Amino acid sequence: MSTRPALASSAPPADAPRPSRRSRHGDTREDREAAIVDAGLDLFLEKGFAATKVDEVARRAGVAKGTVYLYFPSKDDLFHAVVRRSVEPLIDVVEDLAHDPDAPASDVLTRVFKALYAEVVATDRREVLRLIIAEGGRFPKLAAYYHTAVVRRGGAALRSLVAEAVERGEFRDGPAAQRPEVIMGPALLALVWTLVFQEIDPLDLDEILAAHIDLVLNGVKASA
Q: What are the structural domains, with CATH classification, of the chain?
């Protein structure tokens, strides 16, 4: 059983009736799949990956247990679907932005940072990272999938963007250009902060975003 406490913002009282996802989704195949993925994410966050049972996912989604297995043969497969639906669309956007040949690299990085803060740091999508941090050590396959689907793809797009900017003379060829992962550091700080400390010491994400852009662009830009 997972020892991680349930999220106060998402877990209803123990005696409260569980909402049926079917009431919010239609009866098409796509609707049922979406209801199951929604229920899986809710329960993974509330109870942890190990403690979540397939029959609980079925009840939360308003479908039969066999229907869950029809779409997702294992809990691992359901987790993969959660990542695909919650985070991978943003990686698609990042890849598209990073491969814009006509835009200055500084403008592209600014758009990437703004998309990351608006679509992940400031939304419930950040909760997927909470799940990875909490369960990745116990379930390495989950961490490996997230790394392949999100971290590796996003990192490759970022490295390509920075390398091309160095080649064009926009960015200097310093340590940050060799390890461009470090330029995402402030965003990771903001993610962890909002997950752990936001109720204690709220972070102004607009200010952090502006500071992130200023820090990175002034750190990597080539001298005029």
A: 21-75 (1.10.10.60), 87-220 (1.10.357)
For residue range 3-44, what is the model confidence (pLDDT) as tens digits?
A: 333 333 333 443 343 444 444 445 789 999 999 999 999 999
Query: How many residues can be counted in the chain?
Result: 224
**Which pLDDT score, from 0 to 100, does residue 124 have?**
87
* Dihedral angle sign, alpha carbons of residues 197, 12, 3, 41: negative
101-138 pLDDT per residue, tens: 889 999 999 999 999 999 999 998 899 998 999 899 99
In a 13 Å sphere around the CA of 13, the CA atoms on its Cβ side amount to 2
203 closest CA partner among 192, 214, 213: 192
